[in-house]
Design brief:
Blueprint (H helix, E strand, L loop, with lengths): L25 H5 L7 H4 L18 E4 L2 E4 L12 H18 L12 H9 L5 E5 L13 E5 L13 E7 L10 H11 E12 L10 H13 L10 H8 L2 E11 L5 H16 L1 H4 L10 H15 L2 E10 L14
Parallel strand pairs: 3-4, 5-6
Antiparallel strand pairs: 1-2, 6-8, 7-8
Length: 332
């Protein structure tokens, strides 16, 4: 099955020069190719109806006062509000800082990476897929296409179509038993000799002081929903089992609230996500319901003061040149 690099523990592995990601450089702030900031991105994103009086798009439904994906089998519980779209842009910038500028995004609402890659590599065709139709509408390169679809129902794409497949940030939307099917479907659409890259975050914060018990509660809630909070640590295994060879993985530890700019991005990212997930995580708050947001802010301060960090994992592999593939059985 090819060689696989191994990381046996979850001890922190920060970037070689933390100062390089601890703040935004003057060049990155001025460059047109730097990640789009959240305030300017929303003018090209279709607004989402936020009241019950406005009928939601056909791919969304109201559930306990929240707009959530209607797609069958989708476990994602963060509503695609405008604040959440802001968070996706922030997360994209965070990952570009940690893993390098080009982390193309094929399975995320805003598709900022796919758009940037399409501009830079104008001879390459890019396709972004998501189960919710919230794609850029006014600013889109001619070689970049977006399609509505749920990978768990099988992609409407022919076998052996893509030279490169990238997925990320699906850990809160893919049930534990569905990961093998997801990767096998990616194997199917990847060309022989093509590559896959998967990027996910371990859902436990480490070295987080008094916030540790809260994170344990969050992991319990996610597990009860059928999700795997530690799927990020198994990406290389999923790739090997699907048939990819030359499988490797890399881990970066991202500070929460400390180490300058990247730490601030990470803190803002997790507190924003936790507040958006109030409907799901309310049981993890030891105080009154109306104090939930204050409690999340306390968790953020505790992480900052304790020098907490998250571990992000990237795994990639190559489809054998001699391989021919067909559509996998659901959840096989």
């Amino acid at each position: 099955m090819g060689t696989t690099t191994s990381i046996e523990d979850r001890s922190p592995r920060f970037l070689p020069d933390d100062s390089s990601v601890g703040k935004k450089s003057e060049k990155s702030e001025k460059s047109d190719s730097s990640p789009v900031n959240s305030s300017s991105s929303l003018n090209v994103i279709p607004k989402i109806p936020m009241t019950r009086e406005s009928p939601p798009p056909q791919d969304l439904e109201w559930l306990k006062g929240k707009l959530l994906p209607r797609s069958q089998g989708v476990a994602y519980f963060l509503p695609p509000t405008n604040k959440e779209l802001d968070r996706y842009q922030m997360q994209h910038e965070l990952l570009c800082l940690a893993f390098g500028k080009y982390v193309p995004d094929v399975a995320e609402v805003l598709k900022p990476g796919a758009k940037e890659m399409a501009i830079e590599f104008d001879k390459v065709q890019f396709l972004g897929i998501d189960c919710v139709n919230i794609f850029p509408v006014n600013v889109k390169p001619s070689n970049c296409e977006f399609k509505l679809g749920n990978v768990l129902n099988g992609l409407d794409v022919a076998d052996n179509s893509f030279d490169f497949v990238h997925i990320r940030a699906l850990i809160l939307g893919i049930r534990a038993e569905a990961w093998p099917y997801l990767i096998k479907e990616c194997f199917r659409v990847c060309k022989p000799g093509g590559w896959i890259q998967v990027l996910e975050c371990d859902q436990m914060a480490y070295n987080c002081g008094n916030a540790k018990e809260w994170y344990k509660s969050v992991v319990s809630v996610l597990t009860a929903r059928g999700l795997d909070p530690y799927a990020a640590t198994k990406l290389h295994i999923f790739l090997s089992e699907a048939g990819f060879t030359s499988v490797y993985r890399k881990m970066h530890s991202i500070p929460v609230g400390w180490c300058g700019y990247i730490g601030k991005l990470m803190l803002d990212n997790i507190t924003s996500a936790a507040k958006a997930a109030k409907m799901t995580l309310a049981s993890t708050n030891p105080g009154p319901d109306n104090e939930y947001n204050d409690f999340i802010d306390y968790i953020g301060r505790e992480c900052s003061n304790s020098n907490a960090y998250y571990n992000f994992y990237a795994a990639w592999g190559k489809k054998p040149i001699s391989n021919t593939s067909s559509r996998p059985e659901a959840n096989s």
